[in-house]
């Protein structure tokens, strides 16, 4: 599903990723772990086409990322949840979810799609799946951090990408909410046979919810193991 071939990425003279290679199969749940500065965000941003590699190649479904010319076509394949959630606080929850369906920053279209019943039904369905059916028209900024993270998840569910990328999806949440979001993310992805690559700080959560752990250190792979082979000390 994802092929990373000898990827290198520098910021000026600083090497963020050096000659990184790995393959992720369809349906795998991969946790990216490693200390701050290891290169996790850079790798996810490369996979999401927010950055270009200096050398090497990234393929999704056998096709180089650079050949997905159309942003919408790529968004159907690959969806990203970023640390900042990218939600618009002033908008109602359901408008944020509908905006994601269009995979671009067109709020006008989000409102327009409210008049398309099938689109609205899908957004309501996605919000039900994350347990927010009673907050459809709540202002998004009035929601707690955990609820906002669930809105971001609902938006991604509606977009139905084959690959879900998540950068620290639980960074700002307390332990109970973190487990809630991770269980939801990986559980729903499993149901749809989606592939997940998520960066995480906690090895404990990575082992509990993901099938494979890739640890980065100084822009390189430190270890790459099935989660059951990873010990607490690693
Ligand atoms: P993380 O939580 O992934 O460790 P960081 O704190 O490393 O995030 O980075 C947060 C943001 O700041 C990222 O968008 C990253 O690209 C940017 N950033 C990180 N390090 C630097 C740097 N040395 N110079 C400029 N921008 C940086
Ligand atoms: P992580 O997500 O694992 O914390 P990052 O990918 O954010 O790691 O950062 C990898 C390295 O690249 C770090 O040394 C960081 O300081 C550097 N870096 C990240 N973003 C930038 C940037 N925009 N400009 C300069 N250096 C950066």
Question: What can you tell me about this protein's structure?
Answer:
The strands form 2 sheets. The chain has a 6-stranded mixed beta sheet, with helices on both faces. A 4-stranded antiparallel beta sheet has the order 2-1-4-5, with helices on one face. The protein has 234 residues and is an alpha/beta fold. α3 crosses α4 (107-113). It has helices at residues 40-47, 71-77, 93-101, 107-113, 117-129, 145-159, 175-191, 203-209; strands at residues 2-11, 14-24, 29-33, 55-60, 63-64, 78-81, 163-167, 195-199, 212-217, 220-226. The radius of gyration is 18 Å and the shape is globular. The chain is built from 8 helices and 10 strands. 35% of the residues lie in helices and 26% in strands. Residues 36-37, 40-41, 168 line the site of one adenosine-5'-diphosphate.
Sheet with the most strands: spatial strand order:
6-7-8-3-9-10
Helix fraction by DSSP (H/I, runs of at least 4): 25-40%
Task: Please state the structural category.
Answer: alpha/beta
Ions, cofactors and other ligands present here are: adenosine-5'-diphosphate
Fraction of residues in β-strands: 25-35%
Secondary-structure element string:
EEEHEEHEHHHHEHEHEE
Number of helix segments?
8
Q: What is the CA-based Rg, rounded?
A: 18 Å
Q: What is the first-to-last residue Cα distance? A: 27 Å
> Roughly what is the average pLDDT, rounded to an integer?
88
Low-confidence stretches: 101-105
Shape: globular
Instruction: Kindly state the number of beta strands.
Output: 10
Most strands sheet: 6 strands, mixed
């Amino acid at each position: 599903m994802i092929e990373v071939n000898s990827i290198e990425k520098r910021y000026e003279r600083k090497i963020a990723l050096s000659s990184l290679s790995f393959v992720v199969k369809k349906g795998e749940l991969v946790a990216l772990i490693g200390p701050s500065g290891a290169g996790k965000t850079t790798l996810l941003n490369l996979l999401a086409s927010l950055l270009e590699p200096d050398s090497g190649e990234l393929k999704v479904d056998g096709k180089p990322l650079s050949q997905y010319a159309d942003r919408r076509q790529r968004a159907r394949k690959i969806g990203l949840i970023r640390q900042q959630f990218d939600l618009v606080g002033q908008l109602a929850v359901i408008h944020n979810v509908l905006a994601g369906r269009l995979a671009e920053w067109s709020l006008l279209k989000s409102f327009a799609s409210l008049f398309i019943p099938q689109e609205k039904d899908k957004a309501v369905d996605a919000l039900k799946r994350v347990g927010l059916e009673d907050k459809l028209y709540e202002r998004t900024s009035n929601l707690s951090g955990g609820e906002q993270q669930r809105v971001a998840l609902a938006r991604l569910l509606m977009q139905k990408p084959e690959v879900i990328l998540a950068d620290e999806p639980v960074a700002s949440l307390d332990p109970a909410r973190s487990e809630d979001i991770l269980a939801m993310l990986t559980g729903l992805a499993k149901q749809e046979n989606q592939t997940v690559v998520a960066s995480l700080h906690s090895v404990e959560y990575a082992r509990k919810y993901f099938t494979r752990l890739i640890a980065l250190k100084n822009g390189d792979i430190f270890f790459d193991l099935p989660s059951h082979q990873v010990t607490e000390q690693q």
